[in-house]
Design goal:
single chain, alpha+beta, four-stranded mixed beta sheet, 16 strands, 15% helix, 34% strand, elongated
Length: 307
């Protein structure tokens, strides 16, 4: 599991990359957030008012079965939630607000950088201009406390690796009555031992013996929802794809279900006894080439290369 905090825009979207970060680094932009233009011209959120909590990212690994058929998962997320002691106010009961002594209530302090004089968000009051007289003892005035939360997620059938789910309001708590951020769950699908996925279809390599492929048979094969019987026609060649309709992945938009393709893998016999080898040699002597039309056609075409 990987949990990442992402600063949220006031509009509610996740802001994972800010092109103005480099300007803040060079010119000492305020720790209270906002673009360089907001810091210079006073735009953006009111630092003394309610502020939305940060968005969080959670990386979740699921199985191919869970991705194909859908499931419910419960995850544990350690995050900053609203402090139970002060209800998110950051102050002890009956405590008052007083003017910040660092910025004189302006919410900003001036910092000189060579010939420049830059107004920055006050590091003491975080731009609010006021500070709590008696901070909450449990959260030390932050209004938030770190704790673990159990969150239930519904994974829709048909999702693929790299899909992103949004759990609204399950990010970090807001400040001064602001709404909580969102939790974004990024899905990864574990590699399956038997099946590989191609869109809504699945492919499964199934070993078939020389005798089964030659004479034809019916075999039991695995599916995501149990087993199924597949007919192997006589004379089936290696690499042949046999389709089981509707045994693949459920479509994410609800348009039916993909197919399961059984790819025939011809298994050449090994560790033969002397008697078995003799029988195969006798079989070979009985063959005149007509039983292998593909090989016969190939060598007819390749004759020019052997001259």
């Amino acid at each position: 599991m990987r949990l990442i905090r992402a600063r949220a825009r006031s509009g509610g979207g996740a802001e994972f990359h800010d092109p103005f970060d480099i300007f803040r680094e060079v010119f000492g932009g305020g720790g209270g957030g906002g673009s360089i233009f907001e810091n210079l011209f006073g735009g953006g959120q009111d630092p003394s008012g309610p502020q939305r909590g940060d968005d969080l990212r959670y990386d979740l690994q699921i199985t191919l079965e869970e991705a194909a058929l859908g499931c419910e998962k419960e995850i544990s997320v350690t995050k900053f939630d609203q402090c139970e002691g002060c209800g998110g106010a950051g102050a002890e009961a009956g405590s008052k607000m007083r003017q910040c002594g660092t910025c004189g209530g302006r919410g900003q302090v001036l910092t000189s950088r060579g010939i420049f004089s830059i107004a920055q968000t006050c590091p003491h009051c975080k731009g609010a201009g006021r500070i709590v007289e008696r901070p909450c003892k449990k959260c030390h005035g932050n209004g938030k406390a770190e704790r673990s939360s159990k969150i239930k997620l519904r994974i829709p059938a048909g999702v693929e690796g790299g899909s992103r789910l949004r759990s609204q309001g399950n990010g970090e708590a807001g400040v001064r009555g602001g709404p909580a951020g969102d939790l974004y769950v990024f899905l990864g699908v574990k590699k399956h031992e038997i099946f590989s996925r191609d869109g809504d279809d699945l492919v499964c390599d199934v070993p078939v013996s020389f005798v089964q492929a030659t004479l034809g048979t019916e075999i039991e094969v695995p599916t995501l929802e149990g087993t199924a019987m597949v007919k192997i026609p006589a004379g089936t060649q290696p690499g042949t794809l046999l389709r089981l309709k509707g045994r693949g992945v459920k479509n994410l938009q609800g348009y039916g279900q993909g197919d399961l393709h059984i790819r025939v893998q011809l298994e050449v016999p090994t560790r033969l006894t002397a008697e078995q080898k003799q029988k195969l040699a006798e079989f070979s002597e009985l063959c005149d080439g007509q039983e292998a039309p593909i090989a016969q056609s190939f060598f007819e075409k390749a004759k020019t290369f052997f001259k």
